[in-house]
Amino acid sequence: MKSGMMRSNLLLFIFPIVLAFVFLSSTVLSASDLILAKVDRRIDLTSQIVRITASLKVENAGSDVVSEILLSFPENQAKHLAYLKATLSEGKGKVKTSSGVGLPIEAIHPKDVPPALTIYSVSLPKGLGKGRSLTLDVLAVYTHILQPFPEKINQADIQLLLFQESAQYLSPYAVKAQSLTVKLPDARIESYSKLENAKLQGSELKYGPYENLPPFSFLPIVIHFENNQPFAVAKELVREIEISHWGNVQVTEHYDIIHAGAQSKGEFSRLDYQTKPYLRGASAFRHLVAKLPPRAHSVYYRDEIGNISTSSLWGDSKKTELEIEPRYPMFGGWKIAFTIGYGLPLQDFLFGLDGKRFLNITFGAPINELVIDNLFVKVVLPEGSKDISVSVPFPVKEWQETKISHLDIVGRPVVVLEKNNVVPEHNEHFQVYYKFNSLSMLREPLMLISGFFFLFVACIVYSHADISISKSSASYMAKLQWDEVQATIQQVHGIINRCLTAHDKLETSLHELSRTGDVQACKATRKSVDSSLKELSKELKQPLAFLQSSPQAAQILPKVEELVTKERELQEKLILKHTTAVEGYEKKLGGREIENRIASYQQKITALRREIDDLMDLIDEI
Amino acid sequence: MAASDAQNGVSSIRHAFGNVLAFFILLLIGVLAFSIRLFSVIKYESVIHEFDPYFNYRVTQFLTKNGIYDFWNWFDDRTWYPLGRVIGGTVYPGLTLTAGTLWWILNSLNIPLSVETVCVFTAPIFSAFASWATYLLTKEVKGAGAGLTAAVLLAMVPSYISRSVAGSYDNEAVAIFALIFTFYLYIKTLNTGSLFYATLNSIAYFYMVCSWGGYTFIINLIPMHVLLCIVTGRYSSRLYIAYAPLVVLGTLLASLVPVVGFNAVMTSEHFASFLVFIIIHVVALVYYIKGVLSPKMFKVAVALVVSVGLMLCYGGSTYSIGSIKPNKGMEWKKFKSVRSFLTSLLCDSTYASKYIPIIASVSEHQPPTWPSYFMDINVLAFLVPAGIIVRLMLVLAPAACILSGIALSQAFDVFTRSIKLQLPSLSDHSQVDAGVASPESVVPNDSVKMDKSEDTSKERTSKKSKKKEKEPVEKPLSKSQIKKRLLVLPLETSVIAIILLVLLGAFYVVHSVWAAAEAYSAPSIVLTSHSHDGLHVFDDFREAYAWLSHNTEVDDKVASWWDYGYQTTAMANRTVIVDNNTWNNTHIATVGTAMSSPEKAAWEIFHSLDVKYVLVVFGGLVGYPSDDINKFLWMVRIGGGVFPHIKEPDYLRDGQYRIDSMGTPTMLNCLMYKLSYYRFVETDGKAFDRVRRTEIGKKYFKLTHFEEVFTTHHWMVRIYKLKPPKNRIRGKTKKSKSKTSSKPASKRKGLKRNPF
Questions:
Q1: Which of B183, B239, B290, B429 lies at a C-alpha separation of 20 to 30 Å from B249?
Q2: Cβ neighbours of residue A13 under 8 Å, at least 6 residues apart?
Q3: Which domain holds residue B596?
Q4: What's residue B330's pLDDT?
Q5: Burial class of residue B213 in the structure, from the number of CB atoms within 10 Å of its CB (0-12 exposed, 13-18 middle, 19+ buried)
Q6: B317 Rama class: left (phi>0) / alpha (psi -120 to 50) / beta
Q7: Phi and psi of A138, rounded to 5°?
Q8: What is the DSSP string of B409-432?
Q9: Number of structural domains in chain B
Q10: Would B139 be classed as within a structural domain?
Q11: What is the spatial distance between Cα A570 and Cα A588, in angstroms, rounded to a whole number?
Q12: Which one-letter DSSP state was computed for residue A29?
């Protein structure tokens, strides 16, 4: 019952197409002498990307030399066509040496072809003479051509897809013999158009052979089958390739991915997904594999809210493989956005040629079997690059931008390439040529160095310069005077300190005396100390005079004067003590007696000393 | 003379050398403060942490994208649906503006860092600034040596690290710097009496007001200090200059911050400063009059002024009491912070938990335990002669660091000096030889030598104040030296004490590094666990937020407990009903009520709030303890506080909160229970909850009004969708809707009248 309904549904939407071709077959394209002697077609339906390879054996039955071959596609296929490549296959039998270079292809619009057909013309390198034949391999890659049916499924359902094609090769030329093989995934096949000579062998479905078909033969077939391959489609992918001549090519890829298979509806139960992942969640994909170039390093995988920890990386000398797991399993219709970044060694991708440099890197995304609806490739060249030109093997939209990055002044030139509907077949190398002076590399380090240099110079200048606003204001003058006063006080302080040191010398000489009894040495010391003290007191006069004259010092002056007088007193007492002690030794008096004699001095000296210390501290604190 | 010049030259070189050394030590301290906070980035990743930082991050994003004017006028319709929130007027803008300015400067220098990176590293950068500010403050108080020690201590005090690791993008991160710097400028003004510094001080205070509600701390502490100075008779013109401009300018500037506004003159926290402002003027007047009048006249004047002044004060105080407004209208967060500040000051968090459950439900507002006190300031606890235990660890930390810095540097000073005095061989001074007891000296040792040794100690530890470094090398015995000599301790004691101090310091460093690495680095949105087969990462929160952000409509409303509000708006970019800015208790109570109600009633509440998704956090599968079931009693309490039909005893069996078979029927039928445990039994067949360590009470049940739309890998976040209203009851809901819409404000009443 259910399948019957489905079939009628299918018929409904195949009907108009059939109608169009019935209509079309009556019209005749410009008379052509070409005949397709043999057509072998293989359709690969194992992933979301449909690849149809057709090997055409073309014969020229006419008399004129033919230099181009026309390929026709029905409308519903043409709008999904992402990639078309035709190669000449030389040699015979199984050993085919297909030269990798594709032949030039362009879309043409002959007048007598209805709009439902899109015609591409393949130019042959040399004309096909009369009676000659050649083999042409045509690879056509389609995206979004598999339609999920039903469109919405539950978590437990499997994903079923519909695919429509013509069992007979649609061509403006007559076809002598043709066969069709459809490769399906190893899974259930819900239904397929059971034509006369349709055969199902394992997962391969064969139609044909058909012989002696007139031009524009069309025999619609529909296949309804299960496919649980990831339907990862990047709505938008921005690849930014930044060249640093310091040895790195940094690639940053921003993905915006959706699961474009059958939409998920109803509940999502983690329990079901965890316990029976292949039964309850077969249509979901949990990881993607990206094949990065060898020697890729510093790989990261994150999104706007941080690092995503579920990824693994392994690699050898030929490739680096990165397996990334999105934050959550991707069910039909679910979306996610993330960023992958990695660095590549510069010498693997940047080459020099005739004074120019060129970057040679792949165009598409590294993720396997990913369909990209909108791809932007941005090549960020170093600042100061000139004469930029791009060579891409297929047509792309191209323009230039400027990006301002670390320490740039004018910004880096950016070449932007835009392409819609990108499939892995587009992973071809493209080249960006530019001129760049190696000396420009030094600009940024020099800028940094000079920046720091000027900073330090500014610091030095600042610390040595007087940046007061007004040099004549009262407060400024007062400050200057005060500085002077302070300096003078410091001077006085130093002198007094030296006096005190001299006193200490006297004291120590006394100790010497008590130990050695060398009276002469002691006297000599006293003499020298005496003279130095005198000198010091002379020295003291000038700063004292300055302090007395300066109004700023009025506050501190009494203290200083007191200090000086106290010091004099102490000096006298010390000399006295010294003399007494020396005399005592000279008179060979007993140690005790000497001590008794100097005891009175000693007391005063200690007291004075303490007072002086207090005063010194006080002055010091100003 | 020549010799003295040479000595002066040597001393100035030494002085310069000391300065350079101090500069490099400070630089290293800054590097230390910065790098010790990078554990979170190294161990986890460069990501914003926890809850509040996500809000700050979102605000910063808005600021950098839309500019300052839009920021001031920002009405955020993504939160508090359907009320919304005026962000510009209710947020302390200091942190956001700081990070925004940093970002702007970097970008205008063509250093294109992302806003996130700038936000992540703002806190470590400001920690370095804070330790430099500590140096300045302590230097101003006690000298460069103590300053350096305090700066080192602050650079790695765990309490401060806990709030300023990389990614912890919170107000406190910049506020602590502002706090210390404000105090430094205050002390500087006190020491110099310069109006320049006074102005700077006001500006620093303004920055503090911009940054954190804790500015009340400053505006209460400084008046207290001023008052103390006046009472102890230390009034001077410098005190006046330090204080009066701060109050006038500071208050004017503070009222420029929208969130403070007129609160700067109308709330009780600021009255102390105004009172002291009046007092200091009275005192200044008294001092002036004293100088002008003769003593006799002065006495008469005092009598007159005192009587008039008393009357004025009385009048003024009655007026101000009359004008204190109740805080109800204020932003709740501020209220909360102030209240918690006060309650914690009073060591009385029971008050809050009794009357306002939402305040008590915030873990930061719980009284700290001794272990956490030790954890947060560690050995500093022994060096600080104070024993206040309040939840003001953060504010306490700088004070503890400064005091400990002073204590440590003094202790080192004493011990190293004693050692140097007693080890003459260290010195090679050749003026006199040792051995003879000098009459004045207690210790029979060479005394002159200590100049040299002191200078070496200067070089080595920079413990001497700058002023002393200026002194000439040749310095005779002086009283201070004698004093120092009197302080000399026995050699063995000093050596042992130094070793102990070094050990203590080492212990502190080890503890701080451990705390930074292990205790405070977890970003809390990513959890890790070490098992026998290595590290396991639990990234469920971001998984859920990413799912919400990519797979729901932009205008869908998500209901969850308020803890996850900020994260949901920031990471998932979806409208939430309540968030961590808990300003509207009723709204939170509504969500709490919904969570505590049975499914149907809850559905009605959520539906009336236009909610499409309900998010719950569930730790039962992996044993994550801070999940919604453990927070559930707070939801009941807060909900019950507004809607009396929710009664806490209904959820408790004999006063115990349990979810096993002994749980009350109310508990086992409430929405939170159902959403948490929906189909949980099918995981292991027994439904064993690893957090509660028990089997759950009700194992098999179906949801009728909600459907599961997403559950994360470890089941930590579960998201449910409200089922659309059934056709059959459409008429009924329409009727009730028209009824509610006919009466203004009846929604809440309707909820209150909820039949359950």
A1: B290
A2: none
A3: 539-725
A4: 39
A5: buried
A6: alpha
A7: -115, 125
A8: HHHHHHHHHHHHHH-GGG----SS
A9: 1
A10: no
A11: 26
A12: P
Q: Which residues pair with A416 in a beta bridge?
A: A378, A399
Residues of A in contact with B707 (CB under 8 A): 266-267
CATH number, domain with residue B711: 3.40.50.12610
Alpha helices in B347-392 (DSSP H): 349-355, 357-360, 370-377, 380-383
Q: Which residues contact B207 (CB under 8 A, 6 or more apart)?
A: B94, B178, B181, B182
Nearest 5°: phi and psi at B697?
-75, -50
What is the pTM for the complete model shown? 0.78
The answer to whether A136 touches A88, Cβ cutoff 8 Å, is: yes
**Contact in structure between A556 and A622 (CB atoms under 8 Å):** yes
Give residue B486's pLDDT: 54
Residue at token pair 């994208």: B65
Instruction: Report the C-alpha gap between B549 and A338 in whole angstroms.
Output: 12
Could you tell me if residue B645 is inside a domain? Answer: yes
Q: Under the phi-then-psi rule, with left for phi > 0, alpha for psi from -120 to 50, and beta for the rest, what region is A355?
A: left
Q: Which residues of chain B have pLDDT under 50?
A: 1-4, 324-355, 384-391, 425-480, 733-756
Within a domain: B105: no
Residue A203 contacts by C-beta under 8 Å, 6 or more apart in sequence?
A: A183, A184, A185, A186, A187, A189
Tell me the one-letter amino acid at A96.
K
C-alpha to C-alpha distances, A563 to A547, A567, B4, B61, B477, nearest whole angstrom: 13, 6, 21, 67, 16
> Do residue B550 and residue A337 have CB atoms under 8 angstroms apart?
yes
Q: Reduced to 3 states, what is the DSSP secondary structure of residue B450?
A: helix
Q: How many Å separate Cα A478 from the centre of its chain?
A: 60
Give the gap in angstroms from C-alpha A420 to the nearest C-alpha of chain B.
23
Tokens of B136: 């300045």
Cα–Cα distance between B229 and B284 in angstroms, integer? 13
Residue B24 lies in a domain: no
Best residue in A264, A309, A491 for a mutation probing chain B (most B CBs within 10 Å) = A309
Task: Please state the rounded mean pLDDT for residues A55-79.
Answer: 84
> What is the phi/psi pair of residue A558, to 5°?
-55, -40
C-alpha neighbours within 13 Å on the C-beta side of residue B237? 5
- Whether A599 has a pLDDT exceeding 90, the answer reads no
pLDDT computed for residue B362 by the predictor: 59
Within 10 angstroms of residue B497's Cβ, the number of other Cβ atoms is 17
CA dist A564 and A569 (Å) reads 9
Whether B228 has its CB under 8 Å from any CB of chain A: the answer is no
Give the dihedral sign, CA B639/B642/B646/B647.
positive
Distance from C-alpha of B107 to C-alpha of B113, rounded to nearest angstrom: 7
**CA-based angle A291:A292:A296, to the nearest 5?**
150
Give how far A269 is from chain B: nearest CA, Å: 7
Among A301, A327, A469, A486, which would you mutate to test the B interface (most chain B Cβ atoms within 10 Å of its Cβ)?
Answer: A327
A467 shares contact with chain B (CB less than 8 Å): no
Q: Checking phi first, is residue B101 left (phi over 0); if not, alpha (psi -120 to 50) or beta?
A: alpha
- Say how many Å lie between the first and final Cα of chain B, rounded: 99
A270 chain-B contacts, CB cut-off 8 A = 708, 710-713, 715
Ramachandran assignment for A471, one of left (phi > 0), alpha (psi -120 to 50 degrees), beta (any other): alpha
**Strand duo B575-576 + B557-559: pairing:** parallel
Q: Can you give the pLDDT at residue B119?
A: 92
Report d(CA B609, CA B578) in Å as an integer: 11
Number of CB pairs, chain A paired with chain B, less than 8 A apart:
114
Evaluate if residue A38 carries a pLDDT over 50. Answer: yes
- Contacts B110 to A, Cβ<8 Å: 404-409
CB contact under 8 A, A407 and B110: yes
What are A519-558's pLDDT values in tens digits?
Answer: 777 778 888 888 888 888 888 788 888 877 777 777 777 7
For B220, the token pair is: 């209460």
The DSSP output letter for B612 is -
